[in-house]
Each structure stands twice: as structure tokens, then as C-alpha cells.
Specification:
Helix content: 40-55%
Number of strands: 13
Pfam family, one: Rhodanese
Number of helices: 18
CATH class of the largest domain: Alpha Beta
Shape: elongated
GO molecular function, one term: molybdopterin-synthase adenylyltransferase activity
Structural class: alpha/beta
Strand content: 5-15%
Oligomer: single chain
Bound molecules: adenosine-5'-triphosphate, zinc ion
GO biological process, one term: Mo-molybdopterin cofactor biosynthetic process
Strand order of the largest sheet: 3-2-1-4-5-6-7-8
InterPro entries: MOCS3/Uba4, Rhodanese-like_dom, Rhodanese-like_dom_sf, ThiF/MoeB/HesA, ThiF_NAD_FAD-bd, Ubiquitin-activating_enz
Family: In the N-terminal section; belongs to the HesA/MoeB/ThiF family. UBA4 subfamily.
CATH superfamily of the largest domain: NAD(P)-binding Rossmann-like Domain
Mean pLDDT: 92
Length: 459
């Protein structure tokens, strides 16, 4: 009887988890579906932007504080009203940028993003609110910008910028702002801007640092002039890996808005061939001169080899989204799934769970009984960590009957670092380490949260 009650309770718990996951999915689908009608999911030709000949009384009231600036004045304001800007990415940079461009009275704002709003976006993507979770970022940003200034024409594009649509889209705008977060998109936006002769105001933000420059403007270099070869994919970090303090993209997005406004109003930007770096730790901006436009540049040089858009994911060796950056370093038999690990836990099979994330992430959440040794410490063979690991293996051996190899399962956030850790452990010598059987848990803790335990925090 008691056994039956227990089993029913366990079944009920399982079904509750499934229901919670389904409810979440349903609400996200409903939100994006109801708003989908207004969204542009493909590129359509736009009607030309109507040029204002004079400011209305309402315009004068609304923009009075900036009209007073001799640097802007009435002509600058009229210039803003006839300028269109395409914002690529409505995330940490795109939100403040779009907010200030709308407030300043830019004529037309194209807001492009393939993604939907998530809770973890809200600390920095300030145009989106809690009620927008699950909604297309492009639409959420467009609605927020319209609330701020209904005279600005906002066009939401819920699509991924790609080699197929970039030229058609970018040709319809006067200025482009790159607010994306991945290398293939940066090259794509750059090449499309060079091929269509548009200035590109580009920024980035990570951890406590930001950068800004203006490409393809006033005879200055393009992105490829400076970075002809993409960086190795494993050296690139983004906000979901490295973290970012929300204010930092806030500052950099505002800075992008400033340069866009200066270009659009006619003052001009001084950031061509200039890289501005912001260090939030020291509260300091520094500026360095970049090399000039390169005659040998593949896209803007004298004999360009890139005359049309290419396959940027192959060129960079990485995906144009940060959603599927999954490495496959280990053979299948050296990896277990989160379901496999759940059954190991349920059956109480003796093993060691090694969590190789940095301590700061382990403090956010972790599975019970895991041993934390960050990947960097394993790579550097830090003596105290290796000793700790060996002690735990000895304990495990004592606990296990017979002479089979003690199993070590390695976990991280997404299943990339854990594979690297397996490779490091395999190369290690020493009697305790030699005898282990080490495997990686595919998809890491985020797969655990999605597939096994919906109450486990996703970060
Ligand atoms: N090729 C692309 N087409 C459309 N949108 C893009 C493209 N590449 C990147 N983006 C968008 O650019 C934005 C970058 O912003 P940011 O890095 O702040 O957001 P995020 O990807 O939501 O963050 P996180 O990495 O924390 O999940 C994202 O919303 C992303 O969807
Ligand atoms: Zn160039």
C-alpha cells in the first residue's frame, strides 16, 4: 500500500513537471502568435520616407531642448526626421539605441531581431518588460519606441539577418547600427553596408567593457579592413557565457545613438577610424586610432574578392546565433545524456560528479554532491585542486566493491567545457587519475533544467 502511494506520488510529481513545462510553452506560443500579424517576417519594399519641410508646433515643443543646441538646430531636427536607421539586434545595445533614436525624432526605425524576450534579458534590454516575455523582441521594441514617440515610423522585423535578405533590407535604410552579438552577423552586416554604401555604427559590450566605432564612413575603414580573418570560434565569448553588467550595453547603446544622431543630423561622427573603449571598472573612456581603409581589403579594397554576400557561418566557423553553439569534441560513447545521469542518481550508483564551471556560476546553482573544480584550474593543473580530485577518487574506490574503474561524470552549463575537461583529465597522469572512467553529460545543467527538472534555475 505505502509503496503504491509512493509510486503514485512520484508519477504525479512527474506529470506536474510536464504540465508546468507545457503551460510555459503554450503561453509563449500564444504571445508570439497574437502579435505575429503585425510583424514583418520577410523583407518588403518600403515607401520612401516623407521629408518634412518645416517643424510643427508640436515638434517644436517636443524637441525644444535639443533644438536650442546650435549643433542641432531646426535643420538638424529636420534632417533627423528624414533619416531611416536599421537596428540589427534588439538586445542589450539595440534597446537603449532605439529608445534614444525614437525620443530624438528619427524618421524611420527598422527593428530587427529573430529572438523572443526572455526573463534573463530584462536586466539590460530595457525596452522589454515582464509582460513581453515570449514576445518577438522586434515587436516589443517597436511598441515601446512608439509609446515614446508616435511620430516615428517603427518597423519590426522578426527574422534573422542573413545573406539572402541583408542587401535588400539594408539598401532601404540610410544608416545601420550593429547591435548583434555574434561574429558571422558582424561580417555580414559589414559586407552588406559596404556593398550598399551605408555607414555602420557598431558597438559591443561584454562583462564590464564596451567598444564603439563607425565603419565605412567618411573614407574610413570597414570591419574587414581591421579584421580580415575571423577569430577562432573558441576564443569568442558572449554575454550568456561571460556575463555583462546591464549598464554597460546601456552606455554603449546610448553612445551608438549619439553617433547615429550626429551622422543623421549633419554634424558628422568623429568615430571613423577611431575605436572608443569604455572600462566600467575604472569609469574611463579611451580612444585609439585605427588603421586606415586598406587597399587590399577583400570587400572595400581596390580589387575586392567579395562582391556579393557569402556564407558567413562557414567563413567564421560558428553559428550566426548564440543559441546553438554546441561543440562535439568527444565520441558518443564518452558522453551520457541527462536522462542517463538521472537514472544513475536514482539508482544511487557510486560515482563522482565533477562540475567544471567557475565558482561564481556554481554559487548561482548546482546539483547536490558535486565537486567543483573549474576547467581553468584543471587546465593549469592547480596542485590543490588535483589533490582534492585524487582524494575524492580514492574515497570512491573504497566505496565501490570490486576493481572496476570509478566513474566520473563531468558537467558544466551547456556541455562544451565539460567535454574539454574530459580531454584534460584523459591527458593527466598519476595513479588515481589513470584508473578512472570519465564521461561528459551532454547539454549540461541547462539540459538538466529543460529535460529533467523544470525547477532547476536556467541562467
Ligand atoms: N543575424 C541576426 N539577425 C537578427 N537578430 C540577431 C542576429 N544576430 C544577433 N541577433 C540579435 O541580437 C541581439 C543581441 O543582443 P544581446 O546579446 O544583448 O541579447 P541575447 O542574445 O538575448 O543575450 P543572451 O546572450 O544573454 O541570451 C539578440 O537579441 C539576438 O537575437
Ligand atoms: Zn574594408
Amino acid at each position: 500500500m505505502a509503496q503504491e502511494v509512493c509510486s503514485l506520488k512520484a508519477q504525479l510529481k512527474e506529470q506536474e513537471k510536464e504540465i508546468a513545462a507545457l503551460k510555459k510553452k503554450l503561453s509563449q506560443l500564444e504571445k508570439s502568435h497574437t502579435s505575429a500579424l503585425e510583424l514583418h517576417d520577410k523583407v518588403r519594399p518600403l515607401t520612401p520616407l516623407k521629408a518634412k519641410l518645416a517643424l510643427s508646433n508640436e515638434d517644436i515643443m517636443r524637441y525644444s531642448r535639443q533644438l536650442l543646441l546650435p549643433e542641432l538646430g531646426v535643420q538638424g531636427q529636420l534632417n533627423l526626421s528624414k533619416t531611416s536607421v536599421l537596428v540589427v539586434g534588439c538586445g542589450g545595445l539595440g534597446c537603449p539605441l532605439a529608445q534614444y533614436l525614437a525620443a530624438a525624432g528619427i524618421g524611420r526605425l527598422g527593428l530587427l531581431d529573430y529572438d523572443e524576450v526572455e526573463l534573463s534579458n530584462l536586466h539590460r534590454q530595457v525596452l522589454h518588460g515582464e509582460e513581453n516575455q515570449g514576445q518577438a523582441k522586434a515587436l516589443s521594441a517597436a511598441n515601446a519606441a512608439r509609446r515614446l514617440n508616435s511620430t516615428v515610423e517603427c518597423i519590426p522585423y522578426h527574422l534573422q539577418l542573413s545573406s539572402e535578405n541583408a542587401l535588400q533590407l539594408i539598401q532601404q535604410y540610410d544608416i545601420v547600427a550593429d547591435c548583434s552579438d555574434n561574429v558571422p552577423t558582424r561580417y555580414l552586416v559589414n559586407d552588406a553596408c559596404v556593398l550598399s554604401g551605408k555607414p555602420l555604427v557598431s558597438a559591443s559590450a561584454l562583462r564590464m567593457e564596451g567598444q564603439l566605432t563607425v565603419y565605412n564612413y567618411s573614407g574610413g575603414p570597414c570591419y574587414r579592413c581591421l579584421y580580415p580573418v575571423p577569430p577562432p570560434p573558441e576564443t569568442v565569448t558572449n554575454c550568456s557565457d561571460g556575463g555583462v553588467l546591464g549598464v554597460v550595453p546601456g552606455i554603449m547603446g546610448c553612445f551608438q545613438a549619439l553617433e547615429v544622431i550626429k551622422i543623421a543630423s549633419g554634424q558628422g561622427s568623429s568615430c571613423s577610424q577611431q575605436l572608443v573603449m569604455f572600462d566600467a571598472q575604472d569609469a574611463r573612456f579611451r580612444s585609439i586610432k585605427l588603421r586606415p581603409k586598406q587597399a587590399g581589403c577583400a570587400v572595400c579594397g581596390e580589387n575586392p574578392s567579395v562582391t556579393k554576400l557569402v556564407d558567413y557561418e562557414s567563413f567564421c566557423g560558428s553559428a550566426a546565433t548564440d543559441k546553438c553553439r554546441k561543440l562535439n569534441l568527444l565520441p558518443r560513447d564518452q558522453r551520457i545524456t541527462v536522462q542517463d545521469y538521472q537514472s544513475i542518481m536514482d539508482k544511487a550508483v557510486p560515482h563522482l560528479l565533477l562540475d567544471v564551471r567557475p565558482l561564481v556560476e556554481v554559487e548561482i546553482c548546482h546539483l547536490p554532491f558535486s565537486l567543483n573544480i573549474p576547467l581553468s584550474s584543471l587546465e593549469e593543473r592547480k596542485t590543490e585542486h588535483i589533490q582534492l580530485f585524487q582524494e575524492r577518487i580514492s574515497q570512491l574506490k573504497q566505496q565501490m566493491a570490486g576493481d572496476c574503474r570509478p566513474p566520473v561524470y563531468v558537467i558544466c552549463k551547456l556541455g562544451n567545457d565539460s567535454q574539454k575537461a574530459v580531454q584534460v583529465l584523459e591527458k593527466m597522469s598519476g595513479s588515481e587519475v589513470d584508473s578512472i572512467m570519465v564521461k561528459d553529460i551532454c547539454g549540461g545543467l541547462m539540459a538538466w533544467a529543460q529535460k529533467i527538472d523544470p525547477t532547476f534555475p536556467q541562467y
